[in-house]
Amino acid sequence: MGAVRAWRPLPPQLPLSGLCPRPESTGAHLSKPEAGVMSLRVKLRTGPAIGEQGTQLRPAHRAARVASPWQARAFFERSFSLRYRPSMEHSARERWNERRRRDGFEPFPEIPSEWLVEHRELLSGRGRALDVACGDGRDALALARLGYDVDAVDVSDVAIDALRAAADQHALPIHPRVVDLEREALPDDEYDAVVCFNYLQRDLFGRLARALRPGGLLILETFGRAHIDELGKDFNPAYVLDRNELLHAFPGLHVVHYREGVAQRSGAPRGVASIVAQRLG
To answer: What is the pLDDT of residue 79?
Structure first.
């Protein structure tokens, strides 16, 4: 993969803190770093150089009997469709714009996603990167500070307008764009790194893999079954990954590290499924 580039310091107006080193991996192993957590790590294979969404729902009745996880998801969606139909009448852009306006929006927070920080030594900082459903831009900023030229895409034009203004103000190599991922395509063979956090759109998996250049890395994490089963959270099952679903979601990529279970995220426990995978070639 080439030499690993160290994190670059931020200018005084945009500090980037909270980046602490991760213990080095020692090859393929299956471990339990935390209670209820399954983790699979393998050595990164060498190749060419690397150039929240969803309405909260209550779990369905436990007595429901289904034949497969896919039937289970369909059962949940049918069970709650009538109750939550009013919220579906608004487009994703309208819902997220409303949320950004209501909750306030600060572009480029200083602390990136923990799963990205843990694997930063795998990122060369050369070439182009894509932050999918970028939200407040924290991970786009981290990628830019590593040296990438970053495309940051999100459905909310409120978020993108704020990110674009901040990127211009601080001369950051970040290009925010409004993209509806449910309707618009991603370019193929374009990026040396693709990251996606707290966003689940299953029909996007293939496009994320194809967006990578040979040698490129995908770093993805979103909600997993532990969020409901172990933490008892009230959450829409349609926006939660099944056990091992993410592990098998990218058959054309080499899995470098996989993990699912309960992890500390933003100072609170969260049930997650996480993957780092590489396109070989």
So the answer is: 45
